[in-house]
Amino acid sequence: MIGLLIITHETIGEAYRGLTHHFFPQGSPENVHILGAQPNEDQDDLINRAISMIQEFSEDCHGVLIMTDIFGATPCNAARRMVREGKSAILTGLNAPMMIKAVQYAPAATDLTAFTETVKEAAIRGIFAITAAPDDLMCKKAAEDI
């Protein structure tokens, strides 16, 4: 199992927890912890809270993937100070495909580096730029009303 620590600004992480309940109605697995950074919070306090959460993971944990919302912001900067090769890694730019893939595959994962790359690929592959309406996907009645 890989532990997942989500560090985001304020309640963004909790919104992602809600999203996981949509896809996994049985609830968030025990290997997912959410930490919301508060606007007036000192980075060292945030790191201490994160370390405390990491220590809550079970002993059979094969590392922790820390996912943050914005590269260069406080949650990311705190997470960067906690990276330890083979023990913890971070991914920035948290998005829904990243979160779902991580929650889905973390319980069976044992290789932190490979798992991190798999989750990163899900995040990237979940991004599309669509700039024109597809002809074959729009309901004809709805198209007439537009």
Molecular structure report:
It is a single chain. This protein has six helices and four strands. The longest helix has 14 residues, at 112-125. It is an alpha/beta fold. It has a single domain (3-126), classed as Phosphotransferase system, mannose-type IIA component (Rossmann fold, 3-Layer(aba) Sandwich), CATH 3.40.50. Helix 1 (12-23) links the parallel strand 1 and strand 2 (32-37). The chain has a four-stranded parallel beta sheet with strand order 2-1-3-4, sandwiched between helices. It is found in: Cytoplasm. Residues 1-127 form the PTS EIIA type-4 domain. This is PTS sugar transporter subunit IIA. It comes from Neisseria weixii. One of its GO terms (molecular function) is kinase activity.
Cα Rg: 18 Å
Order of helices and strands: EHEHEHEHHH
Which CATH class is shown?
A: Alpha Beta
Secondary structure tally: strands: 4
Largest sheet: 4 strands, parallel
- Look at the structure and give the mean pLDDT: 90
Under the CATH scheme, the architecture is 3-Layer(aba) Sandwich
How far do the termini sit from each other? 49 Å
Q: Structural class, from secondary structure content?
A: alpha/beta
InterPro entries: Bacterial_PTS_sugar_comp, PTS_EIIA_man-typ, PTS_EIIA_man-typ_sf, PTS_IIA_man
Protein name: PTS sugar transporter subunit IIA
GO molecular function: kinase activity
Domain PTS EIIA type-4: 1-127
Summary keywords:
146 residues, alpha/beta, Rossmann fold, four-stranded parallel sheet, 42% helix, globular
